[in-house]
Amino acid sequence: MSADAAQPAPLPPALHKRKGLLERMWRARLSYLLLLPTFALLATFNYYPAARGLLYAFQDVRPGIGSRWVGMDNFGRMLDDRILLGSFVVMAIFVAATLAKSIIAPMAVAVLISRLRSTRLQYFFQTAFLAPIVVPGMVGILLWRGFILDPNSGLINETLALFGILGPAWLGEHSTALMAIILVGFPWVGGIGFLIFLAGLLGIPSSLLESARLDGAGSWRVFWHIELPLIIGPLKLVMILTFIGSIQDFAGILVLTGGGPGTATLVPALHMYNSAFRFDQFGYGAAIGFVLFLLILGLTILNLTLLKSRRD
Amino acid sequence: MPFVQLFRFSAILGLAVLLAAPAMGQQRRVVMGVSDAYLKDGLDILAAEYMELHPDVRVSINIQPGLGYATWLRAAIAGGDQAPDIFNANFGHGFYEAGLIVPLNQYLYRDNPYAEGRWIDNFQFEYLEQLKVGADYIAIPLTVIEIGIYYNRDILRALGLEPPSDWNEFMDLCAAVRASGRIPVAVPADMDNYWQGTVGWMMRFFSDAYFFDRSPLVVPRPGDYLFDPNRDGLFVYDPTDIHSTSNVNMSRERTFQAILDGDISFDGPELREIWTRIQYFSRHWQRGFHGTDDGGANRLFLMQQAAMMLQTSAFMFFLDRQIGEMPEHQQFDWGVFQIPPVTDSDLAIIPFRGVGGALPIWGIVNKNREQSDLAADFLMYITTPRACRILLEKALEAEQGILGPFVINDVPLDPELQARFEPFLGLGREFLTFRGLADEQQSSWMFSVLAQDFMAGARTLDEFLEMYQLSMVGAIARIMRREDMDLDPTTRDNNEPLIAQVLELVSEDWRPRDPADFIEAVSERLRLEARRHEPLDHADALLLVDRTIPVGAFGDRAAFDDANNRARAIADSLGRQFYIAVLVSGAEPEIRVHRFRPHIEEVLRRVEGRRYSNEELRRIWRIRR
User: Fold this and answer.
1) Cβ-based contacts of A278 with chain B (< 8 Å)
2) CA atoms within 13 A on the CB side of B609
3) What is the 3-state secondary structure (H, E, C) of A100-117?
4) What CA–CA distances, in Å, run from B372 to B28, B102, B103, B377, B532?
5) What is the ipTM of this complex?
6) pLDDT of A12 strictly over 70
7) CB contact under 8 A, B190 and A257
């Protein structure tokens, strides 16, 4: 017993660990200090407005006058809002189409380019497909709206007219408006997704591909069993970014149709914008935003888990 | 040690900022946040002149795009300090009721230090009068704008056609153009154009003509807070005089009541006929008109694919510029005719009137007295005849054009230009028009959605009008809730301006400790706000103090109760118009000014959560009355 008492009592492991962490932090104090402004700016410009928006979701906000706590009322109203519920259907179609747009064509073109023997040709096509990135996105959208999709003087309908075909009214008809919005940017290759896929494909060691070919694997089998599994990481990244982006982004729809004709192309994010900034119902807008946030968070986690488990 | 240096650097930087701050604080600032890009050159010159005259003032001319201006303005005002001082008041629907706009009476009756006589004498009376709400001038006008039908004279001449004299002739004219293989009328009909463009205009001039006989229902009567004996008192309903409603007020309470009573309905024969006509008319528009924006429609007219289009008086300058740049063989001659009236229906009471009016109109955002004074002074400077001649000259010099003739006295136009504006003038001005309710944004959006659905064949006329009726009643409920208003036309209900004004006092470090001071100051504010009422006697105070106040702040308990009871009695005797609640917690007093709303509570309780029907609302009203 006396021998035990003579020794200093050992620290509980948790405390020991914490002490070590604090010590390490103190040693790296300059780094922490230098990181501080970044965190302060993030907190001010990113987290604070977001948190404020979260709070608005539970309030009746009157710009310039004040706000009142209303609990879950804004969320309850969403259930009665048939236009909002309908907009989720439009969103689902839009998100699915955008996902397909941002994966299929860019990946196909990236695979084709990566298989070119001539590096010079590879560079040429790579540049050719990426060059349109320098056109600002909004300019692209306005060009599509004014000069490509215009029912009377647009490029598509003028071209169809040459063959004696009467083209549809594109953005001007309930049945074609959403399709026309999805069509914007055709052939949908020039995005950042294409670059990510190409980088992934070019990073695959050529020895792997060659040995597969020696074993008699055709192009399709090489893609399916070698290339695709090896670029699953980039694919996941593109999918998640596209998914988040297509739920959040309403700027294109706002400019192209404003959600119309009627509510044929209205998505929840645009309804949120209308509610908050057109109808002065910031609380209701914030509640829609909050639901979209939860939706994005939930589906992103689901997305990550599913893709991970498939690979494992 | 590196981060000792970092601290030193930050300290020096901080000190520099602190020293600079008071110097920067000396500068007063006026921000003119408007969408009138064509006036930019002239406004910049006038701003520079003004700053030279007042070295302590900094004027910023902040030009915003017209599309999205309403959104920008609301966001800026929600952001507090970000709000402009001077803004386009035509985008400020509901601002007056919410106390966000400064009534300009106090400035208009003063001498304009930069011109001869009073400021009000600078303006052409009838256009300034259009900007009155009750007794308050809420903005000042600069020019007028109106719409008409532009037509390609060459095309009509080649077909041997003349401008029409009534609506049926117009439809025949369209049919003749259509038969020649051209598009009769280019109509931009995307979502925006149902609200602030061509289709919205149609709905406005049609509903004005068809609801004209309802105007006696909505003109204020003796006893109404809006009633002006010199304007409303002289109103006589006369369908042969298209100017008879030009200078009268419109009571929102009476308008809403007429809608709830079914005297004005949106599923009745009027709108049925209007939309049947518009739908018939649309067969003469270009294909896929819902997918055509302003640019697309303009192109059809410029490329001579379309023979006509509805456009504003300002469009002529755009047309001049565009045609001037065309090769000679593509150029064409154009003219303008007024929108021809419907003459074969008993429902159309009068010919179509103008839907434009004074524009731009500039108002002042209510921040505080000092800032309003400064903004008004700058407005006086830029609305003198001399200043407006500069604005005109610079706009024409930059080939930007103007919207229409100036309504500032002594700013003559070149006779040729004046003549070109003639077809747009003398049309009278819309009174009862509905595309949405009073520009309440949710109802105007709902209108656009429903009307587009109907025009595209996705909804029947019955469905469209039934839902439109419901959305308009919903809009009444929303406006009433937002502005805490009831439907009694004799009381001005908005309590927001009072809160805004009183909070302003608090923010100016005003600390009410002495009840007499408090009553004096608040009464002064009430008098300012409610100048249509008999002056409020501050000694009577209409003070109904909330019982949660620490009594110590107002003397002893007995004095507090006494004041409370007296105020309640007075408020009762006056029909319970106001009461004031003061909450004091610590050093920050919070003051609330309320009005009694005996009826609205019941209505709002029922419409809360949007579970109401038209019939139910009408029933509530019947109980009330």
Assistant:
1) 70-71, 441-442, 445
2) 10
3) HHHHHHHHHHHHHHHCCC
4) 12, 7, 10, 8, 21
5) 0.83
6) no
7) yes
Which residues have a Cβ under 8 Å from the Cβ of A1 and sit 6 or more positions away? none
B3: left (phi over 0), alpha (psi -120 to 50) or beta: alpha
Take residue B564 and report the two structure tokens written for it. Answer: 């409370």
Query: What is the pLDDT, as a whole number, of residue B321?
Result: 92
Distance (Å, rounded) from C-alpha B124 to C-alpha B142? 10
- Candidates A184, A174, A182; CA nearest to A86 is A174
pLDDT of res. A186: 86
The whole-angstrom separation of Cα B540 and Cα B543 is 8
User: Does the global pTM surpass 0.95?
Assistant: no
A257 in B contact zone (CB under 8 Å): yes
The candidate with the shortest Cα–Cα distance to A253, out of A132, A104, A106, A97, is A97
3-state secondary structure of B405: coil
Q: From the list B2, B291, B299, which residue is nearest A169 (CB)?
A: B291
CA–CA distance, B313 with A212 (Å, rounded to integer):
73
pLDDT of residue B177: 97
**pLDDT tens-place string over residues A236-287:** 889 999 999 999 989 999 999 999 899 999 999 999 999 988 888 889 999 9
Cβ <8 Å between A278 and B500: no
B299 → closest Cβ in A145, A153, A258: A153
Distance from CA of B442 to the nearest CA of A (A): 5
Q: Which residue has the tokens 């037509």?
A: B151
Report the b/e string of A300-309 with b at 16+ CB within 10 A. Answer: beeeeeebee
On chain A, the residues whose CB falls within 8 A of the CB of B500 are 64-65
B409, B386 contact by CB (below 8 A): no
What are the residues facing B364 on neighbouring strands?
B86
pLDDT value, residue B534: 34
Please give, one letter per residue, the 3-state secondary structure of B443-455. HHHHHHHHHHHHH
B445 and A173 in contact by Cβ < 8 A?
A: no
Name the token pair of B300. Answer: 């059809």
Write out residues in chain B with pLDDT < 70, as ranges: 1-26, 79-81, 97-98, 134-135, 484, 492-625
Structure tokens belonging to residue B117: 């006589």
- Identify the residue whose tokens are 């504006």: B421
